[in-house]
Design goal:
18% helix; 49 strands; eight-stranded mixed beta sheet; 769 residues
Amino acid sequence: MVRRIGLFFLTIAVLMSVMPMNSQAQSLLTRHVREVTRTGEAKPIGLLPSDQIMNLDVVLPLRDQAGLDAFVKELYDPSSPSYRHFLTVPEFTERFGPTQEDYDAVVRFAETHGFTVVGGSRDGMDVQIRGPVSAVEAAFHVSMRNYQHPTENRTFYAPDREPTTDLPFQLWHISGLDNYSIPHPMYVKKSDYAKAHGIDARDVVSHATTGSGPSASFLGSDMRAAYYGGTALTGAGQNLGLFEYLGTDLTDLTTYFKNVGQTNNVPITLLSTDGTSTSCTAASDCDDTEQTLDMTQAIGMAPGLSSLVMYIGSTDTAIISAMTTHSPLPTTIGCSWGWTPADPTTLNPYFEKMASQGQNFFAASGDSSTWSSSNEAWPADNAYIVSVGGTDLVTASAAGPWKSETAWTDSGGGISPDGIPIPSWQQLSGVINSSNKGSTTLRNGPDVAANANFTFYVCADQTTCTANEYGGTSFATPMWAGYIALVNQQLAANGDGTIGFINPTIYQQNVTSSYAADFHDITSGTSGSYSAVTGYDLVTGWGSPNGTGLINALAPTSTSPAFSIFASPGSVSVVQGSNGTSTITTSVSGGFSSAISLTASGQPTGVTVTLSPASIAAPGSGSSTLTMTVASTTVAGTYTITVTGTGGGITHTATVSLTVTAPTAGAFTISVSPTSGYLRQGQSGYAVVSTTVSGGFSSAIALSATGQPAGVTVTFMPSSIAAPGSGSSDMYLTVSRTAATGTYPITITGTGGGITHTTVLTFEVVSRR
């Protein structure tokens, strides 16, 4: 029997709320104990070791919930003077975020209880900390236990009771105190679908007979042709974010574009929000199918994006906190993952913050048909996100226009199983009716839809790409995120801000005669308990986007002379003593015809900024190269460079986030988890060796071990970490029946790029008797 040596690293996120002073133990404001542990359905099987390390994300809540509710309502009311006057990140913090005093108090609380602060920000409302289980149990008055999962063949950890603290205020939530629900991607493989339905995979119908990819499969660019159909809008100047629980291997993205004869021009950033690795390779037993398909669909719809950032983390709060604060701010976001929190209100503060900052969050509605308590919808049934269902699309030709569409048979949808109240925009007359069988008291979903059938070309896991094998609302969600980037580009050209949260707008528009021009109304097909019907339904929502019709409805073309300005990329990192560039582009509309002069401001001491050319000639559409030359004496840090365009009596600005870094030599670190463990004579087990690179290091790292006693063999799988050098390897130890008992320091050596580093596993051989 193989036994895993050591300890699992756990991640938790804690949301905190400031309440009146009280010396008594404070309960938390949201639920944390799972129903299965409360009722005893999940049987406890032991305690977590007290020295086991846990990573927590301590998040402070909104300062003025009622005020924010009222503000968001006005933001999306066309008759309000505040209509779409969105807040910047600092403005939100000043009005609704934690005070500096409260934030500092949380930091002190963490440090006093033995935690190390490792990240977070006041703007993000979080303090990321690290410490042992013993500190968690002492700080929150719980016992961390292991339980047998009642429906899955595994164990999970969770607190034995609702946490309390001795703080003079109440906490809001601890979103990761258990791993009862493991996040899963919202895609499905055709062979798995066929097996679940008791049919042959060859009998699963695929309508991708007109795709331009291999075997007539659909590419992301085909979805652009079907749902947009134009060429003028590319997402230029827009920043798109993708919510990911795992990193990726950009080699797969490169393979995709190479195989289909296309070029990706969108800058990709892999951002770790909480220290989670941004690498995901098949060699390290990590699957990047979801992450890669998310990028291909978003880029396919909006091939001119200024940036696409993969926000990667292990906790939902850490990921979304970064999404609400990162510069440049992602204004359209896709999430193709599903999970079940202990309390479905956990992320409401962040989703509402996004709405106030002009951000739109799309969530896949799922691939298992009708929502239920056993077929969870979250986060797709949250009232502040746009839920995306699935359809079965047919196009007129390869890379051609939309022809027809029916409901996808497994599209997730229905009535909120989390008991989320029906939002105001679903209460409009004509939305819920006897035909669609929706609820008049609870949130219904999905809101919109797009192609999700088994019709796509997919490259993943550094292996052979597939055609017409994968489907799911995972594909439809990043499509919609890319489509809204086109809307925001047109709004920017009109001199307007972003569209923000689209549900209040599209529901209001779709109960009028403009609906047919804006959406493809899906009226046939069934998924589970619901069918597609005329108008809104609980399988496809309002349907799929109808080309430029919806874009023009959300971003009416300006009839007054105007221009827009944007920077690509919007974020540039430069080493001291070097330089970096960004392209400043202007576009005109409404008959604007004037030269546009360009100036830059905000650069720190030691940074010289030039614009070439310094003026865009009339009629005003063109580009200029912004060059930022950083002296070796410039203080490292992040600075906002503002480029101002002035012409025709109009002034607009674009910003570039300049990060100045100190030069570093290529390096790597090596570690082993756990750092100590034991096996009995005759047993086998393994530990995990991990390497992390920095400073431009790029080399394979060979692994070896010394110090093991006679009778103990050590092997590494893989035996080396592939270039650029970040990854992990399983270190297998096999103990013979005759190995001498005792404790041995085993030195693990990593060698690569002319550098050698070591780490030590303290290993004990125990008698088998």
